[in-house]
Structure formats: C-alpha cells, structure tokens
Request: fold
Amino acid sequence: MTKKIAFFDSGIGGLTVLHKALQQFPDESYIYYADTLHVPYGTKSADEVRNYIFACVEAVVRENAEAVVIACNTATSLAVNELRSMYDIPIIGMEPAVKPAVEMNRDNGKRVLVFATALTLSQTKYNELVSRVDDEHRVDSLALPELVEWCEQLEFDPVQTAAYFRSKLSNLDLDQYGTVVMGCTHYPFYTSILRKVLPEHIQIVDGSTGTVNHLKQRLGLHVQQQAGSGERRREDKVIFLSSSGRTEDQDKMRTALQYLKEKSL
Ligand code: DGL
Reply:
C-alpha cells in the first residue's frame, strides 16, 4: 500500500528534501505544498509565520495526507510541537544538523558554521539545541536571506552567488572551520557553488538525508527500485499545491525539482 505523504515549506526549498525522498521511495504518492503567498518566512515575525504554518498544514491534511514532512527548518522551530498535538498523523520536522556537525569535529578542534534563517536562529528551539550539543562553544551562525529570494526566482547564478558567499564569509578565518551546516532547505540549491568557494577541508552537511531516514522509520517504508526511465512517472506522482493557487507556482516547483535532479543536488 502506498502512502500519501505531504511535504510543506514556505516556498520551493522543501523540494531539496522531497527530491531525496523520491530517490528512495519513488512509489509513494506525494503532495508538495508551498506557501507562495507568504514566502519568505525567515525575515518575518514568529507570530505572523506561525499562523501561516497552521493554515498550510490544515490544507494538506484536508487533502488526506497520511503524514506531513515540515520540510522547513523555520516552520519546524516555530510550530512542530503544537502541530504534533493537533494531528494524529505523523508530523516529521527538521532542524539544522548541528549535532552531527559538532560530533564530526569533536577530535579535530574545528568550528562549525550554521547557515539558517534569522527567524530559526532567534528561536528557543534552536538555541536550546546549540546549548545542548555545543559543549565546547564552537558553533557560529549566519543568516543568508538573499539565497531564499534568489531561489524563489529560480536564480542560480554561479558568479553572483559565489561573490555573495565570499562577502558573507570575508570576516571569518575559514581555516578554523571543519563543517558548514545548511540549516535552511532553500540553501542546498546552492551547495555546489558554495563547495567551490570553501576550502576543501570544510564539509557541507544538510538535514535532508536525516529527515528522509526519519520518515522511512516512522512510516515503515522500504527503499524502492527506480524504474529505468521512471523519472517522468515519479514527477507525475507529485501533486503540487500552493497557497496562491497560481499555475505559475506549479510550473516553478516542477522546474526547480528538475534542476535538483539535473545538478544531482
Ligand atoms: N526553507 C525554509 C527553512 O528551511 C525557510 C526559508 C524562508 O522562507 O525564509 O528554514
């Protein structure tokens, strides 16, 4: 029996997580819901965004989703606990991969740099996570709001983005860092560009693999074989929805998912 799994994000960022789920579980059926009326979340107030999140999750539950992946670090940090108390179906959240990053650098003394939205970084949930795992005070953080803006416009310009990363990192001594955490689901669209900007010794991690593993465990999914030319079929299995209901949004989501596939992101 296939499951109907909903993925939700403020915009197209959560496609970086859906893309990973499609690779492992191409036979499930998927809803992808983007709150295109209100993206970006990361620069707004917590109270405003919380209301948007509840409306979006209610919309996918009405579509008979059997599980919801909050494919947005910001939304998870603001509302995952309340959502879990509101619905009986599994609600899978995601948080910046700070814990594995700290572990990776436990023995080499290097620092960890977390990229996430300003709203995620201001939340108690994030700050408690850091206090819990960062016993040697080696975690720093930085918001990159322009990446969300560009991503929503399907702008993946390598020259502009590389210059942006360089200017954002210019005050840091990168030799001191061992890992960069992509703590916003929009950011992995730019991982290959960041890779070229960072010194080779710095690893880049994001939470998508961990989230898909969590989904697998919660729903008892088994990794499925992809049919040779099955990509078209896989995409047909995704129902794209957005808060604006515009068909342009659906085209944008399809194009972005195709981009992730082509770039092997
Ligand atoms: N993609 C979202 C996240 O993972 C938020 C981006 C935004 O809307 O600012 O945090």
In short: Residues 9-11, 13, 39-42, 72-74, 117, 120, 148, 184-186 surround D-glutamic acid (CB under 6 Å).
